[in-house]
Structures are given as structure tokens and as C-alpha cells.
Amino acid sequence: MKDTLVLKTIQEKIKNLGSLPGCYLWKNQLGQVIYVGKALKLQSRVRSYLNPNQKDRKTRALFVELYDLDWIATRTEKEALLLEATLIKKYNPKFNVRLKDDKKYPFLCVSTSEDYPMVFLTRKVKDNGDKFFGPFTDVKAARDTLELIHRIFPIRKTKLKLPLAKPQRPCLNFHMGRCLGPCQGNVTKETYAELVDEILRFLEGKKERLVADLKSAMIAASAKMEYERAGFLKQRIEKINQIREKQTVVSLDGGDEDILGISKRDDEGQIVILEVRGGRLEGKKSFPLSGLSFSDDEEAFTSFLRDYYLNATVLPSVVYLPTSAKGNYDVFLEAILEKFGTSIKLKFPEMGPKKSLLRLAEKNADLSLTERILATKLRDQTVAMKELQEKLNLPTLPRTIECYDISHFQGSLPVASGVMFVEGKPYKPGYRHYKMRGYEGINDPGMIHEVIARRLSHLVNEGEALPDLIVIDGGLTQLSRAAEAANALDLGHIPMVGLAKKREEIYFPGEKHPYSFDIHSPMMRLLRNLRDEAHRFGVTFQRLQRKKKALKSILDDIPDIGASRRKSILSYFHTKKKVTDATREELEGVQGIGPVLAEKIYNNIQSLKKIEPKD
User: Fold this and answer.
1) Which fold has domain 256-370?
2) Signal sequence span per UniProt (predicted)?
């Protein structure tokens, strides 16, 4: 239950809020901002969080951690929307949906503030009269677009302050027809401006209109017998058409549209934008999100639309969203209209071609998220192995790690399990099960001694490679016995540690006191994965042994069942549950069992089930 004093303190603060619009900041006991929200009326919105019986899962989770409140009043809800985005970037609150990457995405800049503009990549958007296009989430795609522009349009590529006081000799690009050569002063501002206008329309996706204008200019130049200019224009038309032919037509009405899809897994997510310009699918942008554990699609898209489109340089006419994202976007649309002088339409198709495109966007989002999660895991595994080498003072990078655990049921049917991770990932061919030979009852240290001795003896006798690290599921006692087994085989040089369950502490051979490391570090996550996998693998095997024993016991108690028939029943049904649930007809399906014997077996099983204790 939330501390009464904490609630009273917050309630007193709320009394001062009034009905102003603005942003509120919930903080935890450490003073960290854990959630930022906006409201038209701060007082009523903030008070709604203090009901402990919330239906919303996110609000319930937030209620548990909230300890203090801060706020910033604004003049309008629209101002609050913009302030909310700034505060989320500043504090990175755990309960807010946010773009994951802090890095700035690159833009293509057309330096229209200059007399003779050029096109280049930049991560800084300035309000200086230049035109910016982006952001590009894929740097390679941005560079490819820049290269394409330089190949199609003869714009200058060298940074110079033009016009020069004294014209200079043009570079190789001029002689190759890839630059009009403004450095030597033989192209007018008007002619160069026409070229820049073509580039702007190309980047805005207005290729169809651009091609039509270029054709008109080509015909006019040809009529004036300006054949060289007509030839240049024809080349540009052909190159642009080659690009357009490769682009899929997805909208016959030729509109500029964005189709958005989302994929979510736990706290992580990915939003993909399919950009349709002039009715053709021109590209894909993918954005990583975090803070999705307690958020629905409406909140995720509300946050993304605010962060992306309010910072965009070119707007589509329509944005298509999944029906799960339906909500109130009025404040966002007002902010867009105020900033750009035009608005966009939000549509939520439930069927038809646009619905199919939404599914395509969602599929791309899922693929992008899978790729990112795998890349993150791979990166974490590499970091984890390096941390293990450093923190445990290992002679080599632990590329092969084995972990061992003991499992039994109240001392009966003891087994051991060994799992192997290679390059930080489970390597199933290296998994091993062991039935204990020398120990009965509860003697985990002794059993660990036995399994390590058997494993290392096998590796030595077969000439197989030794692991880079052995992890024992247990504390000092288990680790000491494992080290004894290794020393007896003159293999004491193999690095070995024990991982205790309660406090996640690491023991080293010969040292009484354990070491503690950051439990959230990649190294500790890898060790826990090893330990948990060894435990899972062992428990599964131990349960199988119990089932086999119970099944054998049931069959032993049934009269007229010899060794041959018992073997047939065991191979036919495999598990105790299947035998005890078998019908008379199923029992008749076993080789060597007729209707009379099947009836007798069935009746015996039913009578045994009545007195069998529950597991």
C-alpha cells in the first residue's frame, strides 16, 4: 500500500495546480523522473493517478513507484505537447514511449541560402534558409540518395564560396559532364537555379511532374537548335525514368502517403514508415522505440507522430495507421497546421489495398525489430565474454563455457545436467545428461564431484578440447568438490567458478568469500542464462526419470504382463500419463494384447489411479 504521508503530500501539491494546461512529471523515491505527461487541465489529470484501483495496467505500475510530483504550466495544450517531447528527451522516463536512439539521424541539405547551392549530408538542421530532407534512419540509404543526385544532376560537389573573385579551372567533374562548373563563372544564377529546383522536386518525390517539365524544356531547347542542352535534359529524363521503373506502384491516384506499421516485444518496439510519393513506393524508414511494456498502440503512435512529424521537413498528405492506433490526435494536428501552414490526414483503413500496405509495414517492422534484438544480443554476448575475461582474470576469451547442475526429487533419482554455450549462445550438441552412479540421497557436492570427474575424463580420453570456463551451479562447497575432481586429473588449470543462487554471487576456487558484480551487466546476464538453462535441462531429465519409474511400477502391478508385453506397452505409450489415460481400444492396439487382456489391464490401471497419490 502506498505510504499515506506520500499521498497527502502529493494531494496538497495538486491543490495548487488549478485548471491550467501543461506538463506533469512523476518522480520516484530517488527523485528520478519516471513519467512525463501533458494535460489540458493539470489538476484533474494528475489527481486521476492517485486512485490505487486503476483499470489501466500502466497506471497501476506507475502508482506503485510514484513518490513526488512536479509540473510546468503552459498557455495552451499545443505548447504542452511540444514541451512534453522536450522533457521526455531530457529525462528519458521509464514509463514513456520514446525513440530509442539518442543519435541524430542524417539529413540531406540543399544549401539554397547560397547563390550556387550544393547538396550534402548533415546531422544539424539549421534555420538559415537551406532546405533539409530527412531524417534518414539508414545512413547508407542517405549516402546512396546523395550519390544518385550527383549522378543525375550536374550540381557542384566542391565546397567553395561562390562566385569566386577570380574564376578557376574546373575540376574533372565538369569535363565528365557531372557539374556545370560555376567555379569558372560560365553558368548563370538563373540556369543553376533551374537545376536546383529540379533537385528539390526530385527529393520531394515529385518525379512525374519533374519529368514532364524536363520533356517540355527538352523540346523547347531542340526547337531553338540548342542540341547540347536538349541532350543533357534527355539524359536526366532517362535516368529519372530508370529509377521510377524500379519503384512499385501502390497508389493509382498518385498521392504522397506514409504507411506506418509497428511491432512490439516486451519493452522494445519498432515503427516502420513506407513512403509513397507520386503513387510509388520510394523507400522505408525504421525507428526503434523503448518504454512499451505498459503502452498500447495509441500511445506509441501518439508519441511517435509528435516526435517525427513535428521535426520533419516534408509532409505527406495522408498518414495511414492501424485501427489499433485510433485515438484523439487533435492537438497534434493543430500543432502541424501551425508549424507548416498545412495539415495531414490520419486514416485507419479496415480493408482494401491500404490495409494490405499496413500489413506490409507491420511485417517490415517485425523483421527490423527481430534484426535489432538479435544484433543487441550478439553485441551483449561479445561484451559479456570480454567482461568475463577481464573480471575473472581468464587467460583467454571464454568462447566455450560449460555449466553443471544437480537435480533430484527429495533425494531420489538424482541426475546431473551439463549445458554448453559457444560464443555466448546455447550449443545444443554440447548438452549432456548424467545419471548418478556413486551417490544416493541428498549430496549435491559429491554428485558435482562425480559429474565433473566423468566429464573431464571423457574429454581427456577422447582428445577433445577443454572448455574455456566451467560454471558450477552452487556455492563454495560445490565448487570446492568440482575443483578437487579437476585437480585429481591434473586439470586444475581449467578456469572454474561457482554461481550462488540467492545473492547471485561468484565464488572462486580456494577463496572463502564471494565476489559481487553488477547483476544487470552483460557478464552476469550470460552467467544467469547458463545457470538457468542447466537447471531447466536437469529438471526436465529428472522428471522424465520419475515418469519412467512410475510407469514401470504401474505395469509391474498388473497381472499377466510379462517382460515382452511390458516392453511393447512402454514403447507404444512412452509416458505414464498416456498409459493411465489409455482407453480399452488403444490398449488393444498394442502388439500381443487382445480384447480380454486389454480389459484386464484397463481395469487394473483404473483401480491403481484411485489410490495413487497426486504429484
Assistant:
1) Nucleotidyltransferase; domain 5 (3.30.420)
2) none
CA-to-CA distance for 205 and 161, rounded, in angstroms? 29
SS3 per-residue string spanning 216-251:
HHHHHHHHCCCHHHHHHHHHHHHHHHHHHHHCEECC
Q: Measure the CA angle with vertex 368, ends 363 and 370; round to 5°.
A: 95
The number of residues making up the chain comes to 615
Q: What does pTM read for this prediction?
A: 0.58
CB atoms within 10 A of CB 5: 8
- With contact defined as beta carbons under 8 Å apart, do 358 and 259 qualify? yes
Strands (E), 291-363: 318-320, 345-347
DSSP conformational letter for 173: H
Nearest to residue 277, comparing CAs of 293, 300, 254?
Answer: 254
Give the fold, CATH level 3, of 558-610.
Answer: DNA polymerase; domain 1 (1.10.150)
CATH no. of 395-534: 3.30.420.340
DSSP state of 428: G
Highest mean predicted confidence (pLDDT) among 14-18, 217-221, 419-423? 419-423
Is the confidence at residue 330, as pLDDT, over 50? Answer: yes
pLDDT in tens, 366-394: 988 988 887 777 777 888 999 999 999 99
Q: Which amino acid belongs to residue 283?
A: G
C-alpha cell recorded at residue 210: 519533374
Computed over every residue of the chain, the mean pLDDT equals 84
DSSP letter at 213? H
Q: Are strands 496-499 and 469-473 parallel, antiparallel or unpaired?
A: parallel
Q: pLDDT (tens digit, 9 = 90+) per residue, 71-81?
A: 999 989 999 99
Cell of 176: 565528365
**Contact predicate 296/380, CB 8 Å:** no
List for the chain the helix, strand, coil content (%; round to 5). 45, 20, 35
Q: In CATH, what number does 4-91 get?
A: 3.40.1440.10
